[in-house]
């Protein structure tokens, strides 16, 4: 990915926003798109770029404050491109892991709430886009952190500053005799549900992401693009059956992000598919 792709990516995000005609209508426009060389457009693109950079910087600052012992001076010192330093990482422990904590959902709500066009959506569509943003951030941010400070040491960096050693690869839980390493069947199932998607991400997704070698700025825009391209349709006006949308919400790419065990009641409501259209 090169910097020259940034204007094109931003245009895609603008075209898929709720205020854009292409977001609410499937009828192609007969008018030709104005050139990107207009001084006004270039200024607007740069303004949107800066907005996306600030969104991710603020999210990184929140994570630095929540998951490290950094000084306040370090948290409020300009653009934050990485929330963690390598020495601040903590080993991941699946036994104590309880999924996203409430503070993390607050961070991601603040992120989703500042996506361009978010305020123009219905309540149900805001709910859906928020969930998509959680999933996209889980994958993209983890990949970015891993690419920056983890790959050299074969570490997969999670969004909360924990790491999983990927050399050698962790057991998947299906190997003969693996059940003897766990005291309960439920513990083994929890291990498999948590570790398998992460190993899959390391093997299948990380090489593709590393090939892009995105900068912080490119990663910010890539993440915003993924959010809108995954949830660009308005659910209240969508012609898909409810069952199809539910299948999307319950798919592996979404469910692997929400491994909540006895979560907060508000979080349970956010993640429940029964509240998606309410």
UniProtKB/TrEMBL annotation:
Record keyword Transcription regulation present: yes
Alphabetical keyword list: Receptor, Transcription, Transcription regulation
Annotated NR LBD domain residues: 64-278
Protein name according to UniProt: NR LBD domain-containing protein
Region (Disordered): 17-37
Organism annotation: Caenorhabditis tropicalis
InterPro entries assigned: NHR-like_dom_sf, Nucl_hrmn_rcpt_lig-bd
Record-linked PROSITE patterns: NR_LBD
Entry keyword annotation includes Transcription: yes
């Amino acid at each position: 990915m090169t910097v020259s792709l940034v204007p094109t990516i931003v245009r895609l995000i603008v075209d898929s926003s709720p205020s854009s005609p292409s977001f609410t209508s499937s009828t192609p426009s007969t008018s030709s798109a104005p050139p990107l060389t207009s001084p006004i457009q270039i200024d607007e693109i740069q303004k949107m770029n800066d907005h996306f950079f600030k969104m991710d910087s603020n999210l990184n600052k929140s994570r630095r404050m929540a998951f490290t012992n950094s000084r306040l001076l370090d948290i409020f010192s300009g653009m934050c491109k990485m929330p963690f330093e390598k020495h601040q990482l903590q080993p991941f422990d699946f036994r104590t892991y309880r999924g996203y904590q409430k503070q993390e959902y607050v961070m991601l709500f603040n992120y989703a709430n500042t996506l361009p066009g978010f305020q123009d959506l219905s309540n149900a569509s805001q709910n859906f886009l928020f969930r998509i943003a959680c999933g996209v951030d889980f994958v993209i941010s983890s990949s970015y952190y891993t690419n920056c400070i983890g790959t050299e040491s074969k570490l997969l960096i999670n969004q909360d500053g924990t790491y999983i050693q990927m050399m050698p690869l962790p057991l998947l839980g299906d190997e003969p005799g693996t059940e003897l390493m766990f005291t309960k069947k439920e513990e083994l199932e929890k291990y498999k549900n948590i570790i398998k998607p992460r190993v899959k991400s390391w093997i299948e997704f990380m090489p593709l992401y590393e090939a892009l070698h995105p900068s912080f700025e490119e990663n910010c825009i890539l993440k915003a693009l993924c959010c809108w391209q995954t949830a660009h349709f308005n659910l209240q006006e969508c012609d898909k059956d409810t069952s199809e949308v539910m299948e999307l919400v319950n798919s592996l790419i979404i469910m692997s992000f929400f491994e909540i065990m006895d979560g907060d009641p508000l979080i349970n409501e956010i993640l429940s598919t029964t509240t998606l259209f309410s």
